[in-house]
Amino acid sequence: MPALELESVCKRFGALSAIDGVSFAVEPGERVALVGPNGAGKTTLFNLISGELPPDSGTVRLGGRDVTRHTPEKMAREGLGRTFQRNSLFMESTVYENVRLAVQARAGVSFQMLRPITAYSRLGEETERVLELVRLSGRAGVRASELSYGEQRQLELGIALATGPRVLLLDEPTAGMSAQETGEMVAMLKELPGEITLLIVEHDMDVVGALARRILVLNFGRLIADGPLEEVRRNEEVLAAYLGVGEEVRDA
Amino acid sequence: MVEATKPGEKAGRFPVRAGTLAVLGALGALAVYPFFGTTYMIGVLTEIMILAIFALSLGFLMGYPKLISLGHAAFFGGGAYAAGIVAVRLEAANLFLTLVCALVFATLLAVLIGVLSLRNTGIYFLMITLALAQLVYVVAEQWTWLTGGTDGLVGIPYPELFGFFSFDRFSFYYLVLLLAGGAYFLLRLVTRSPFGHVLLGIGSNERRMRAIGYGTRVYKLAAFVLSGAVAGVAGALWAHYNGIVAPVDVNWPLSATALIMVIVGGAGTLVGPMLGAAVVWFLDTGLSSYTERSTMIMGAVFILFVFFARGGIAGIARSLWERFYARTGT
């Protein structure tokens, strides 16, 4: 059974067909890259999967269950995690508190009002484990707003990981990073537990090549290619989309 | 360095211990004051402490989940009317009865108003709380046989305890002090709990909270109801203290005054709004015995805080402390 499955998902914004009949399935533990030119609809597709936007038609399934039009919080509880293209952190809180809040989301203690949070040692242990995964253990006490951009990107990933997702959507995890930071992020993502299914939006083809064997190509809201990187690279339609060659030119 | 990164520590923040010491010091001073102070000042402090509980309840809402309500007088006044009606109409001024009735009534009212208003966010939330609270005001004004209408409900006595103890000005002061301290320490506990951290997360980044699995509305409702209940208790004390409840106690200017108390004192802390209540009382009611322009002075002070000290009194204290802390080293 696929970990994530989309069937003819559509979304229109007025006259613009942002996502046009997208279907694909991702197997558990698979690592898939979603690429496409700017404005192709990659982030919109993520928002449709994660429940931030309701699709107009089509079906989204998570582990075989129909989760179409679930709210974001319900999707998270169903095992879907996501990061945002632009960091979405708790800026005034420390790195540790950021991650702990995400750990707490599935710990079932969030209505406890009369004991300090530090009394819940389970939260602490899990938080430290996640901090190690995203290599921020040494920065635990620092306020999120005081981190470097690359570290904030790591924290962005840490928050998503801390919810214990089975499927993780990563929206440009290396966006705006230096070459060195990108290398570290790729190494970090490679070390993630094998059972986590990853769907990654990424522009950097080296990153795509390092993380995913299978590539989905989105253009004008339609899926125009789905296959191994070498194959997709030779795909005519993909080349046209990336080289800016219009449909009419190709058809002529 | 390793120490600084230990669980839950808030590196470089306002030291918790200094804040706690300040609160305990203030409580101690207030506890011994009646033995030296004048009867008049005991009354003033009683009034301020009741308003401080009210400001605290709104400050909790504005500082943690960042919900700005302009209808908080509904819970304060609602609690005051509930206590007053029990004391006058049922002739039962038992402290536990009036307090519990005020608490229950304010809680129910907060559930109702909260469910309706929390469907919206930001300015719309604020406007709906205002509109619903004004409905409560209209009911208080019109339902004359129950509430006394525009004349108010008069003749509310100090509370008593099962016939063997009746509060007077002096002992009522201590009752209010006890409840003000209790409300502060209760909400302090809540803000440090897992629930309190959820509220802080909602105030900081609600979108991300939902993305990591929190159904934020139910947490906001819980905070709203808790805040309303605390305001209701303050209202009950207000009714006993003044001996009268009138429609002004549910009207929107009181909600606005509470908002000003929170902003002047400093949202985001619990001590701040309570201090704000004292400052606003002295600038507004206190100065009004000396000048007719007290409201204007209050307005000017409020504007100064909004322009130059967004963190309020608590924010000023924090930055002074941090400067001192930086100079003496860690």
UniProtKB/TrEMBL annotation, chain A:
One Pfam family from the record: BCA_ABC_TP_C
A GO biological-process term: L-alanine transport
Listed InterPro entries: AAA+_ATPase, ABC_AA/LPS_Transport, ABC_transporter-like_ATP-bd, BCA_ABC_TP_C, P-loop_NTPase
GO cellular component labels: plasma membrane
Alphabetized UniProt keyword annotations: ATP-binding, Nucleotide-binding, Transport
GO MF, any single term: L-phenylalanine transmembrane transporter activity
Domain ABC transporter: 4-245
CDD domains linked to this entry: ABC_Mj1267_LivG_branched
Protein name as annotated: ABC transporter ATP-binding protein
From TrEMBL, chain B:
Record PANTHER family: ABC TRANSPORTER ATP-BINDING PROTEIN, HIGH-AFFINITY BRANCHED-CHAIN AMINO ACID TRANSPORT SYSTEM PERMEASE
Lineage: Bacteria, Bacillati, Actinomycetota, Rubrobacteria, Rubrobacterales
Transmembrane listed as a keyword: yes
GO cellular component: plasma membrane
Keyword Kinase: no
Keywords, sorted A to Z: Cell membrane, Membrane, Transmembrane, Transmembrane helix
Superkingdom of source: Bacteria
Compartments (UniProt record): Cell membrane
Major subcellular location class: membrane
Molecular-function annotations in GO: branched-chain amino acid transmembrane transporter activity
Membrane topology annotation: Multi-pass membrane protein
TM spans (from-to): 16-36, 42-61, 73-90, 96-116, 123-140, 170-187, 218-239, 259-283, 295-317
UniProt protein name: Branched-chain amino acid ABC transporter permease
